[in-house]
From TrEMBL:
This is TRAP transporter substrate-binding protein. The lineage of its organism: Bacteria, Pseudomonadati, Pseudomonadota, Alphaproteobacteria, Hyphomonadales. Coiled coil: none annotated. PROSITE patterns: TAT. It comes from the Bacteria. The keyword Electron transport does not apply. It holds the Pfam family DctP. Keywords: Signal. It comes from Ponticaulis profundi. InterPro entries: DctP_fam, SBP_TakP-like, TAT_signal, TRAP_DctP_sf. Gene3D superfamilies: Bacterial extracellular solute-binding protein, family 7, Periplasmic binding protein-like II.
Length: 374
């Protein structure tokens, strides 16, 4: 295997070498033969997302395409949607045991592996998109994530972010804490643990199974992402009340997991290209979700008469209190405790910054917009 720098160098040698052959005819025979042998990799990526879903379904396709482009075709990645090669929630095991090379999914789908995994997607009242990027990239999160995942034979990389999500679609209004008691809701990760603590029942369903469960009454409510993806899945047709804020996922980070043995066999250049492709999609997805959610919220309100609601203050307070306990319970010892403590330390630092930066700015922007009538 060769790295990209060598490939570029070989290309430059080909251009400059032709001219050199005129000056030194003895080199012509050497230049006629390939200077290098270019090996290829063909990799399979399994995903937790329905085929063709905007945003989430596109993210792994973009990762694959950018890897192929940067490697000049030396690394080909074939993407399989949920159920095409393995079921959505079996992606982790497929990569861990080597039956697939990579997955694209949400780390909070793997709590059975470790209670710390949700910290690398989203936890209730936790980090926003830019904050989780800050913690993983600069606050020690990646090192801990690598350590956690190495035990399962996986190398994890951030590879998309949905930004702030909505609280979900409900068949009935939520006017008090009593309305959560007995509520059957599709909500994974620690968000589901919070709902259980408040008397509800949480279920984890892959995206392709949610609409039918809502349509048949097997669940009373569901969260997914935000207006863009939620519109595509049609939840507004079954549950008219759309609640926010999304306390459970303030900035959901998605991931590529690579089989660790394969990762270690790769050249430094190959690993750099895969990492760069994931980082690029992480950036692209956040901007795309931010813009498209605004577009589709307008469509849902104008064309489908959804009922936009905010959770009552007492419900938000109870959720926040429960979230503190749920987060703490997931990090009681071992690496889970170290991840929890690192996350909480990073969150405190960035909350203090947000309190004097983004928070006041958003408030001032709204005040100014209302005053000007825009």
């Amino acid at each position: 295997m060769i790295n990209r720098r060598n490939l570029i160098g070989a290309g430059l040698l080909g251009a400059g070498g032709a001219a050199a052959a005129f000056a030194n005819p003895e080199r012509a025979a050497d230049l006629a033969a390939p200077a290098i042998s270019r090996n290829r990799r063909r990799l399979n990526m399994v995903t937790t997302w329905p085929k063709g879903l905007p945003g989430l379904g596109e993210a792994p396709e973009r990762v694959a395409q950018r890897i192929q482009t940067m490697s000049e075709g030396l690394i080909e990645v074939k993407v399989f949607a949920a159920g095409e090669l393995v079921p959505a929630f079996e992606c982790f095991d497929a990569v861990a045991n080597g039956s697939a090379d990579m997955y694209h999914g949400a780390e909070y789908y793997w709590p059975a592996k470790s209670s710390a995994y949700p910290f690398f997607t989203a936890v209730p009242f936790g980090m926003t998109a830019q904050e989780i990027m800050g913690w993983i990239d600069f606050g020690g999160g990646q090192k801990l994530w690598d350590e956690l995942s190495a035990d399962f034979g996986i190398k994890p990389i951030q590879a998309a972010n949905t930004g702030h999500q909505m609280g979900g679609w409900f068949r009935k209004e939520i006017n008090s804490l009593d309305d959560l008691v007995g509520l059957q809701m599709r909500i994974p990760g620690q968000g589901g643990d919070v709902l259980r603590a408040l008397g509800g029942s949480a279920r984890t369903l892959p995206g392709g199974e949610i609409y039918q469960a809502l349509q048949t009454g097997n669940i009373d409510a569901t969260e997914w992402v935000g207006p863009w993806n939620d519109y595509a899945l049609g939840f507004y047709r079954e549950a008219p009340y759309y609640y926010g804020p999304g306390f459970h996922e303030p900035g959901a980070s998605l991931a590529v997991g690579v089989n660790l043995r394969l990762w270690n066999e790769m050249t430094e250049g190959e690993r750099a290209m895969i990492t760069a492709a994931c980082e690029s999609v992480n950036h692209t997805s956040l901007g795309e979700f931010t813009y498209q959610n605004a577009v589709y919220l307008d469509i849902l309100q104008r064309e489908h008469n959804i009922q936009l609601r905010s959770f009552p203050d007492d419900v938000v307070k109870a959720m926040s209190d429960a979230a503190q306990d749920v987060r703490a319970a997931s990090g009681r010892d071992g690496i889970e405790k170290r991840i929890y403590e690192s996350f909480e330390s990073g969150l405190k630092k960035m909350r203090d910054w947000a309190a004097v930066s983004e928070g006041p700015y958003y408030a001032a922007r709204e005040l100014g917009a209302r005053a000007s009538g825009t």
